[in-house]
Structure to design on (414 residues):
């Protein structure tokens, strides 16, 4: 398995909303102060949990070395943390474009320019990190997701939800067909002319179709997040409906997969250790063996099937709504969790920082093979302490400041 998820991230990792009580990108939308703060802080908390899930996959013991509660935590982190980031990436795109009412005219053009610049920066940063640390870094994929999402910024929640659902139903089957047709020789021929592939072994073909987070099967997560951002998550009715929807999607997708594919339907690729990372987000994407249509019935993390997409979106919705409700209804918990929430406000820094820290400590990149939980706990504690201290003095994380500065030329768009 390879390096996964930020950020997004790109939330993916990208500029996140500042910690409570600072003003957010949504400040132009009239809303009661309490629910507005709770809603945005809940999104940051969900982002922080996604960061920690990523740490579990990259630094914690492998799934094969865990049991009991530890095994459940490891399984839930595998794949689901990256999906949560991708969903939150879509949510954050709408913050940039004005969440409730999309910007139009000059403001709309400038918002799209900022997002396009972020996309290019993330693509470049992801490529550079892949060159330096090896493996697959999700930042480059996020850049592609953002560019493809630009035409959808002005759509309503219902339209976005329909598009996400349609893609979830169609793209896994399309991906299966494409990967069946793309033999190893064809891939090599295409990659030979791809400068990105020569630089980092992750080229355009990987970014779009055959990589570990291929756009073809991951863009539904981003669009689902965009649809969520169009809703008022502080409204009790919306919270109950979304919780019911998330639970229904999760139970229906994983339940149907178990019925159709049997006991191995939810099997995680992490069970096979680092060697299972292969070359694709679906087991059937790997060029090392012939894809089998029966794999389309599975729903394991990173399987990239319709069942996996729908079930993972359900889990992401439950996480986001749960975090939002907790921050909205439990002010004491919100105060206690402030250092954790700060991690979510600088998820790009937390993501890139864990690569740098692993390199400095001479820890191997990719899915962890060590047996101790102590390194993972130290990374989580380190991220919390750093983010908690930094947020006392600065509005954004270090890399979030740089990313925001890179988008400043967008204000000159006319």
């Amino acid at each position: 398995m390879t390096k996964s998820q930020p950020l997004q991230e790109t939330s993916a990792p990208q500029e996140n909303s500042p910690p409570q009580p600072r003003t957010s990108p949504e400040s132009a939308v009239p809303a009661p102060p309490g629910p507005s703060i709770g809603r945005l802080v809940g999104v940051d908390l969900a982002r922080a949990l996604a960061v920690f899930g990523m740490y579990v996959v990259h630094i914690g013991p492998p799934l094969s070395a865990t049991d009991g509660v530890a095994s459940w935590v490891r399984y839930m982190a595998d794949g689901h943390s990256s999906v949560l980031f991708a969903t939150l990436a879509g949510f954050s795109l709408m913050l940039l474009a004005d969440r409730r009412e999309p910007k139009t005219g000059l403001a709309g053009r400038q918002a799209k320019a900022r997002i396009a610049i972020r996309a290019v920066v993330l693509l470049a940063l992801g490529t550079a990190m892949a060159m330096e640390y090896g493996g697959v870094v999700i930042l480059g994929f996020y850049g592609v997701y953002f560019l493809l999402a630009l035409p959808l910024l002005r759509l309503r929640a219902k339209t976005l939800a329909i598009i996400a659902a349609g893609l979830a139903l169609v793209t896994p089957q399309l991906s299966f067909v494409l990967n069946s047709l793309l033999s190893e020789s064809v891939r090599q021929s295409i990659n030979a002319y791809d400068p990105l592939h020569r630089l980092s072994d992750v080229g355009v073909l990987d970014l779009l179709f055959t990589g570990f987070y291929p756009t073809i099967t991951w863009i539904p997560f981003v669009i689902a997040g965009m649809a969520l951002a169009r809703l008022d998550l502080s409204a009790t009715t919306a919270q109950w409906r979304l919780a019911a929807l998330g639970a229904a999607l999760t139970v229906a997708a994983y339940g149907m997969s178990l019925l159709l594919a049997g006991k191995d339907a939810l099997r995680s690729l992490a069970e096979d250790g680092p060697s299972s990372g292969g070359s694709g987000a679906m087991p059937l994407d790997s060029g090392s063996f012939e894809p089998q249509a029966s794999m389309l019935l599975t729903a394991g993390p990173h399987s990239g099937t319709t069942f996996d997409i729908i079930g993972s979106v359900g889990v992401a919705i439950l996480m986001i709504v749960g975090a939002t409700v907790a921050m909205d209804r439990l002010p004491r918990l919100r105060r206690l969790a402030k250092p954790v929430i700060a991690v979510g406000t600088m998820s790009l820094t937390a993501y890139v920082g864990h690569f740098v820290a692993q390199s400095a400590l001479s820890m191997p990149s990719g899915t962890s093979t060590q047996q101790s939980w102590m390194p993972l706990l130290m990374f989580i504690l380190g991220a919390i302490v750093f983010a908690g201290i930094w947020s006392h003095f600065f509005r954004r994380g270090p890399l979030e400041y740089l990313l925001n500065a890179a988008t400043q030329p967008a204000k000159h768009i006319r």
